[in-house]
Amino acid sequence: MRTLAIVPAYNEEDVIIPTLEGLVAACPEVEVLVIDDGSADATARLCREAGFHVVSHPTNCGLATGFRTGIRFARDHGFDAVVQFDADGQHLPEYIHDMEAAMDRTGADIVIASRIVEGGGGEIEGLRAVGSKLISSLVKLTTGTRITDPTSGFRLYSSRLFDEFADGFDLGPEPDALAWLMRHGATVAEVPCSMRERQGGTSYLAGFSSLAYMARTCLNILVFQWFRH
Amino acid sequence: MSITLRLGLTIGAFVIFGLVCYEVSRKRIRVSDSVFWVIFSLVLVFIALFPQIAIGLANLVGIASPANFVFAVALGILIIICILLSTKVSMLTDKVQNLASKVALLEDERRRER
Protein backbone atom coordinates (compact mmCIF):
# COMPACT_ATOMS: atom_id res chain seq x y z
CA MET A 1 0.00 0.00 0.00
CA ARG A 2 1.41 3.39 -1.01
CA THR A 3 0.48 5.70 1.81
CA LEU A 4 0.89 9.45 2.10
CA ALA A 5 1.07 11.02 5.55
CA ILE A 6 -0.58 14.43 5.51
CA VAL A 7 0.77 16.59 8.33
CA PRO A 8 -1.16 19.87 8.55
CA ALA A 9 0.87 22.42 10.50
CA TYR A 10 0.04 25.91 11.66
CA ASN A 11 2.68 27.61 13.80
CA GLU A 12 4.18 24.35 15.07
CA GLU A 13 7.89 25.28 15.01
CA ASP A 14 8.44 23.89 18.53
CA VAL A 15 7.31 20.36 17.79
CA ILE A 16 7.16 19.70 14.06
CA ILE A 17 10.72 18.42 13.51
CA PRO A 18 10.73 15.77 16.28
CA THR A 19 7.25 14.69 15.13
CA LEU A 20 8.39 14.25 11.53
CA GLU A 21 11.61 12.51 12.53
CA GLY A 22 9.64 10.06 14.66
CA LEU A 23 7.27 9.44 11.79
CA VAL A 24 10.04 8.72 9.29
CA ALA A 25 11.90 6.50 11.77
CA ALA A 26 8.83 4.38 12.50
CA CYS A 27 7.44 4.27 8.95
CA PRO A 28 10.25 4.83 6.43
CA GLU A 29 8.06 3.58 3.57
CA VAL A 30 5.35 6.20 4.17
CA GLU A 31 5.77 9.39 2.17
CA VAL A 32 5.38 12.59 4.21
CA LEU A 33 3.77 15.82 3.04
CA VAL A 34 3.71 18.79 5.39
CA ILE A 35 0.93 21.27 4.71
CA ASP A 36 2.05 24.58 6.16
CA ASP A 37 -1.19 26.49 6.57
CA GLY A 38 0.24 29.99 6.28
CA SER A 39 2.27 29.77 9.48
CA ALA A 40 3.73 33.02 10.75
CA ASP A 41 6.63 31.25 12.46
CA ALA A 42 9.53 29.15 11.16
CA THR A 43 7.51 25.93 10.63
CA ALA A 44 7.95 25.78 6.83
CA ARG A 45 11.60 26.86 6.85
CA LEU A 46 12.60 24.30 9.51
CA CYS A 47 10.86 21.48 7.62
CA ARG A 48 12.49 22.41 4.31
CA GLU A 49 15.92 22.68 5.94
CA ALA A 50 15.44 19.20 7.38
CA GLY A 51 14.66 17.92 3.90
CA PHE A 52 10.93 17.38 4.23
CA HIS A 53 8.44 18.03 1.47
CA VAL A 54 6.40 21.11 2.39
CA VAL A 55 3.46 22.71 0.61
CA SER A 56 2.72 26.19 1.93
CA HIS A 57 -0.66 27.86 1.75
CA PRO A 58 -0.16 31.54 0.94
CA THR A 59 -2.68 32.37 3.66
CA ASN A 60 -4.22 30.62 6.66
CA CYS A 61 -7.13 28.50 5.43
CA GLY A 62 -7.90 26.09 8.26
CA LEU A 63 -7.44 22.38 8.85
CA ALA A 64 -10.02 21.24 6.31
CA THR A 65 -8.31 23.09 3.46
CA GLY A 66 -4.93 21.73 4.51
CA PHE A 67 -6.34 18.22 4.41
CA ARG A 68 -7.89 18.92 1.01
CA THR A 69 -4.55 20.12 -0.37
CA GLY A 70 -2.99 16.87 0.83
CA ILE A 71 -5.79 14.77 -0.69
CA ARG A 72 -5.36 16.53 -4.04
CA PHE A 73 -1.63 15.83 -3.97
CA ALA A 74 -2.31 12.16 -3.15
CA ARG A 75 -4.82 11.90 -5.99
CA ASP A 76 -2.46 13.55 -8.49
CA HIS A 77 0.39 11.23 -7.51
CA GLY A 78 -1.46 7.92 -7.38
CA PHE A 79 -1.38 7.11 -3.67
CA ASP A 80 -3.56 4.27 -2.34
CA ALA A 81 -4.34 5.90 0.99
CA VAL A 82 -3.60 8.94 3.12
CA VAL A 83 -3.13 9.08 6.84
CA GLN A 84 -3.96 12.24 8.73
CA PHE A 85 -1.10 12.84 11.16
CA ASP A 86 -0.99 15.65 13.72
CA ALA A 87 2.06 17.91 13.80
CA ASP A 88 1.85 18.35 17.56
CA GLY A 89 3.13 14.88 18.43
CA GLN A 90 -0.17 13.46 19.75
CA HIS A 91 -0.20 10.63 17.24
CA LEU A 92 2.23 7.73 17.53
CA PRO A 93 3.46 6.65 14.08
CA GLU A 94 3.84 2.98 15.11
CA TYR A 95 0.08 2.55 14.70
CA ILE A 96 0.11 3.43 10.99
CA HIS A 97 1.10 -0.16 10.18
CA ASP A 98 -1.87 -1.50 12.20
CA MET A 99 -4.16 0.89 10.34
CA GLU A 100 -2.87 -0.18 6.93
CA ALA A 101 -3.20 -3.84 7.89
CA ALA A 102 -6.79 -3.24 9.05
CA MET A 103 -7.64 -1.51 5.75
CA ASP A 104 -6.17 -4.42 3.79
CA ARG A 105 -7.94 -7.00 5.94
CA THR A 106 -11.39 -5.41 6.18
CA GLY A 107 -11.51 -3.45 2.93
CA ALA A 108 -12.77 -0.46 4.95
CA ASP A 109 -12.70 3.00 3.35
CA ILE A 110 -11.67 4.66 6.60
CA VAL A 111 -9.64 3.25 9.48
CA ILE A 112 -9.70 5.21 12.73
CA ALA A 113 -7.07 4.81 15.42
CA SER A 114 -9.29 4.68 18.49
CA ARG A 115 -8.35 5.40 22.08
CA ILE A 116 -11.63 3.95 23.31
CA VAL A 117 -11.99 0.61 21.52
CA GLU A 118 -10.93 -2.56 23.41
CA GLY A 119 -7.15 -2.38 23.85
CA GLY A 120 -6.90 1.37 23.33
CA GLY A 121 -5.16 3.75 25.70
CA GLY A 122 -8.32 5.62 26.77
CA GLU A 123 -6.55 9.00 26.91
CA ILE A 124 -9.64 11.17 26.64
CA GLU A 125 -11.27 12.72 29.66
CA GLY A 126 -13.42 15.49 31.02
CA LEU A 127 -15.58 17.52 28.65
CA ARG A 128 -13.85 16.08 25.60
CA ALA A 129 -14.96 12.59 26.61
CA VAL A 130 -18.54 13.84 27.07
CA GLY A 131 -18.53 15.51 23.65
CA SER A 132 -16.99 12.45 22.05
CA LYS A 133 -19.64 10.16 23.58
CA LEU A 134 -22.42 12.46 22.39
CA ILE A 135 -21.09 12.51 18.82
CA SER A 136 -20.58 8.74 18.95
CA SER A 137 -24.21 8.13 19.92
CA LEU A 138 -25.52 10.54 17.26
CA VAL A 139 -23.48 8.72 14.61
CA LYS A 140 -24.83 5.39 15.88
CA LEU A 141 -28.38 6.78 15.77
CA THR A 142 -28.17 8.07 12.20
CA THR A 143 -25.91 5.49 10.55
CA GLY A 144 -26.46 2.36 12.65
CA THR A 145 -22.71 1.93 13.10
CA ARG A 146 -20.79 2.71 16.27
CA ILE A 147 -17.58 4.67 16.07
CA THR A 148 -15.98 4.54 19.48
CA ASP A 149 -13.63 7.48 18.98
CA PRO A 150 -15.17 9.90 16.44
CA THR A 151 -12.95 12.82 17.47
CA SER A 152 -9.69 10.95 16.96
CA GLY A 153 -7.85 12.89 14.27
CA PHE A 154 -5.68 9.86 13.47
CA ARG A 155 -7.40 8.30 10.46
CA LEU A 156 -6.42 6.43 7.32
CA TYR A 157 -8.50 7.19 4.21
CA SER A 158 -8.61 4.97 1.14
CA SER A 159 -8.16 6.43 -2.35
CA ARG A 160 -11.83 5.60 -3.02
CA LEU A 161 -12.69 8.73 -1.00
CA PHE A 162 -10.18 11.09 -2.63
CA ASP A 163 -12.63 12.55 -5.17
CA GLU A 164 -15.23 13.18 -2.49
CA PHE A 165 -12.79 15.06 -0.24
CA ALA A 166 -11.02 16.88 -3.07
CA ASP A 167 -14.09 18.13 -4.92
CA GLY A 168 -16.90 18.03 -2.33
CA PHE A 169 -18.39 21.12 -0.70
CA ASP A 170 -17.85 21.70 3.03
CA LEU A 171 -16.38 18.24 3.65
CA GLY A 172 -13.41 18.08 6.00
CA PRO A 173 -11.77 15.37 8.08
CA GLU A 174 -14.34 15.66 10.86
CA PRO A 175 -16.84 13.31 12.53
CA ASP A 176 -19.88 14.82 10.78
CA ALA A 177 -18.24 14.18 7.41
CA LEU A 178 -17.58 10.58 8.50
CA ALA A 179 -21.27 10.14 9.32
CA TRP A 180 -22.26 11.59 5.94
CA LEU A 181 -19.82 9.33 4.09
CA MET A 182 -21.05 6.30 6.05
CA ARG A 183 -24.64 7.08 5.12
CA HIS A 184 -23.47 7.13 1.52
CA GLY A 185 -21.87 3.70 1.68
CA ALA A 186 -18.40 4.24 3.14
CA THR A 187 -17.25 1.62 5.65
CA VAL A 188 -15.24 2.30 8.79
CA ALA A 189 -12.94 0.10 10.84
CA GLU A 190 -11.19 0.95 14.09
CA VAL A 191 -7.89 -0.17 15.54
CA PRO A 192 -6.88 0.37 19.17
CA CYS A 193 -4.22 2.98 19.86
CA SER A 194 -2.70 5.14 22.55
CA MET A 195 -2.07 8.84 22.14
CA ARG A 196 0.37 11.18 23.78
CA GLU A 197 -0.21 14.61 25.22
CA ARG A 198 0.33 17.25 22.57
CA GLN A 199 4.02 18.11 22.75
CA GLY A 200 3.51 21.84 22.13
CA GLY A 201 1.45 24.42 20.27
CA THR A 202 -2.23 25.08 20.97
CA SER A 203 -5.33 23.17 19.97
CA TYR A 204 -7.70 24.78 17.53
CA LEU A 205 -10.42 23.47 19.81
CA ALA A 206 -10.39 25.61 22.90
CA GLY A 207 -13.04 27.58 24.76
CA PHE A 208 -15.78 29.04 22.61
CA SER A 209 -14.64 27.38 19.40
CA SER A 210 -15.19 23.94 20.95
CA LEU A 211 -18.82 24.92 21.61
CA ALA A 212 -19.20 26.04 18.01
CA TYR A 213 -17.55 22.79 16.91
CA MET A 214 -20.03 20.71 18.90
CA ALA A 215 -22.98 22.75 17.61
CA ARG A 216 -21.88 22.36 14.01
CA THR A 217 -21.11 18.64 14.38
CA CYS A 218 -24.38 17.75 16.10
CA LEU A 219 -26.47 19.92 13.76
CA ASN A 220 -24.83 18.41 10.71
CA ILE A 221 -25.22 14.83 11.87
CA LEU A 222 -28.78 15.25 13.13
CA VAL A 223 -30.38 17.66 10.67
CA PHE A 224 -28.48 18.70 7.58
CA GLN A 225 -27.35 15.23 6.51
CA TRP A 226 -30.87 14.52 5.33
CA PHE A 227 -30.70 17.44 2.89
CA ARG A 228 -27.20 16.88 1.58
CA HIS A 229 -26.57 14.74 -1.44
CA MET B 1 -48.18 39.30 23.51
CA SER B 2 -50.84 38.87 20.85
CA ILE B 3 -51.55 35.52 19.28
CA THR B 4 -50.84 37.10 15.87
CA LEU B 5 -47.31 38.03 16.91
CA ARG B 6 -46.71 34.57 18.36
CA LEU B 7 -47.96 32.99 15.16
CA GLY B 8 -45.83 35.39 13.12
CA LEU B 9 -42.72 34.51 15.13
CA THR B 10 -43.36 30.81 14.61
CA ILE B 11 -43.92 31.19 10.87
CA GLY B 12 -40.82 33.39 10.65
CA ALA B 13 -38.79 30.76 12.46
CA PHE B 14 -39.91 28.03 10.09
CA VAL B 15 -39.19 30.21 7.05
CA ILE B 16 -35.65 30.89 8.35
CA PHE B 17 -35.05 27.22 9.12
CA GLY B 18 -36.44 26.07 5.77
CA LEU B 19 -34.38 28.61 3.85
CA VAL B 20 -31.19 27.60 5.67
CA CYS B 21 -31.86 23.91 4.98
CA TYR B 22 -32.49 24.74 1.32
CA GLU B 23 -29.23 26.69 1.04
CA VAL B 24 -27.31 23.87 2.74
CA SER B 25 -28.79 21.35 0.31
CA ARG B 26 -27.85 23.62 -2.62
CA LYS B 27 -24.28 23.69 -1.21
CA ARG B 28 -24.34 27.45 -0.93
CA ILE B 29 -23.88 27.78 2.82
CA ARG B 30 -21.44 25.89 5.01
CA VAL B 31 -22.87 24.14 8.02
CA SER B 32 -20.66 26.13 10.39
CA ASP B 33 -22.13 29.35 8.97
CA SER B 34 -25.68 28.08 9.37
CA VAL B 35 -25.44 27.32 13.09
CA PHE B 36 -26.33 30.89 14.08
CA TRP B 37 -29.55 30.91 12.01
CA VAL B 38 -30.74 27.58 13.36
CA ILE B 39 -30.23 28.81 16.92
CA PHE B 40 -31.93 32.11 16.01
CA SER B 41 -35.00 30.29 14.68
CA LEU B 42 -35.11 28.06 17.78
CA VAL B 43 -35.10 31.15 20.00
CA LEU B 44 -38.00 32.65 18.00
CA VAL B 45 -40.06 29.48 18.47
CA PHE B 46 -39.15 29.44 22.14
CA ILE B 47 -40.40 33.02 22.61
CA ALA B 48 -43.61 32.23 20.71
CA LEU B 49 -44.24 29.17 22.89
CA PHE B 50 -43.37 30.87 26.17
CA PRO B 51 -44.32 34.58 25.85
CA GLN B 52 -43.91 34.93 29.64
CA ILE B 53 -40.15 35.17 29.03
CA ALA B 54 -40.54 38.21 26.78
CA ILE B 55 -43.15 39.75 29.08
CA GLY B 56 -40.96 39.29 32.14
CA LEU B 57 -37.84 40.69 30.47
CA ALA B 58 -39.83 43.64 29.03
CA ASN B 59 -41.07 44.51 32.54
CA LEU B 60 -37.55 44.17 33.89
CA VAL B 61 -36.08 46.75 31.49
CA GLY B 62 -39.18 48.94 31.56
CA ILE B 63 -40.57 48.46 28.06
CA ALA B 64 -44.38 48.58 28.20
CA SER B 65 -45.12 46.20 25.36
CA PRO B 66 -43.41 42.81 25.11
CA ALA B 67 -43.80 43.03 21.32
CA ASN B 68 -41.60 46.13 21.29
CA PHE B 69 -39.10 44.32 23.48
CA VAL B 70 -38.94 41.40 21.05
CA PHE B 71 -38.47 43.75 18.07
CA ALA B 72 -35.77 45.78 19.85
CA VAL B 73 -33.79 42.70 20.83
CA ALA B 74 -34.12 41.14 17.36
CA LEU B 75 -32.98 44.42 15.79
CA GLY B 76 -29.99 44.61 18.14
CA ILE B 77 -28.92 41.04 17.39
CA LEU B 78 -29.25 41.56 13.64
CA ILE B 79 -27.18 44.76 13.76
CA ILE B 80 -24.41 42.92 15.59
CA ILE B 81 -24.55 40.09 13.03
CA CYS B 82 -24.33 42.66 10.21
CA ILE B 83 -21.20 44.15 11.73
CA LEU B 84 -19.64 40.70 12.19
CA LEU B 85 -20.48 39.88 8.58
CA SER B 86 -18.87 43.14 7.46
CA THR B 87 -15.64 42.22 9.23
CA LYS B 88 -15.81 38.77 7.67
CA VAL B 89 -16.32 40.21 4.19
CA SER B 90 -13.41 42.60 4.74
CA MET B 91 -11.13 39.79 5.84
CA LEU B 92 -12.17 37.66 2.87
CA THR B 93 -11.62 40.56 0.49
CA ASP B 94 -8.14 41.07 1.86
CA LYS B 95 -7.40 37.34 1.59
CA VAL B 96 -8.60 37.14 -2.02
CA GLN B 97 -6.60 40.23 -3.00
CA ASN B 98 -3.50 38.74 -1.39
CA LEU B 99 -4.07 35.40 -3.09
CA ALA B 100 -4.60 37.03 -6.49
CA SER B 101 -1.37 39.00 -6.24
CA LYS B 102 0.59 35.97 -5.00
CA VAL B 103 -0.77 33.74 -7.79
CA ALA B 104 -0.02 36.44 -10.37
CA LEU B 105 3.60 36.72 -9.18
CA LEU B 106 3.99 32.92 -9.15
CA GLU B 107 2.68 32.64 -12.71
CA ASP B 108 5.02 35.38 -13.81
CA GLU B 109 7.94 33.53 -12.22
CA ARG B 110 6.96 30.29 -13.94
CA ARG B 111 6.59 31.96 -17.32
CA ARG B 112 10.04 33.49 -17.04
CA GLU B 113 11.56 30.14 -16.06
CA ARG B 114 10.34 28.61 -19.31
Descriptive key words:
heterodimer; A: 229 residues; alpha/beta; Spore Coat Polysaccharide Biosynthesis Protein SpsA, Chain A; globular; B: mainly alpha
List the helices and strands and how they pair.
The complex is a heterodimer of chains A (229) and B (114).
Chain A: E1 3-9, H1 16-26, E2 31-36, H2 43-49, E3 54-56, H3 63-76, E4 81-84, H4 95-106, E5 110-114, H5 126-143, E6 155-158, H6 162-167, H7 175-183, E7 188-192, H8 208-222
Helix pairs in contact in A: 5-7, 5-8, 7-8
Chain B: H1 3-25, H2 31-49, H3 51-61, H4 66-113
Helix pairs in contact in B: 1-2, 2-3, 3-4
Explained architecture:
The complex is a heterodimer of chains A (229) and B (114). Chain A has 229 residues and is α/β, with parallel strands linked by helices. Chain A is built from eight helices and seven strands. Chain A has a seven-stranded mixed β-sheet, with helices on both faces. In chain A, helix 5 packs parallel to helix 8. The longest helix of chain A is centred in the middle third of the chain and has 18 residues, at 126-143. Chain B is built from four helices and no strands. Chain B starts with a helix and ends with a helix. The radius of gyration of chain B is 22 Å and the shape is elongated. In chain B, helix 1 packs antiparallel against helix 2 (31-49) and helix 3 (51-61) packs across helix 4. Chains A and B meet through helix 8 of A and helix 1, helix 2 and helix 4 of B.
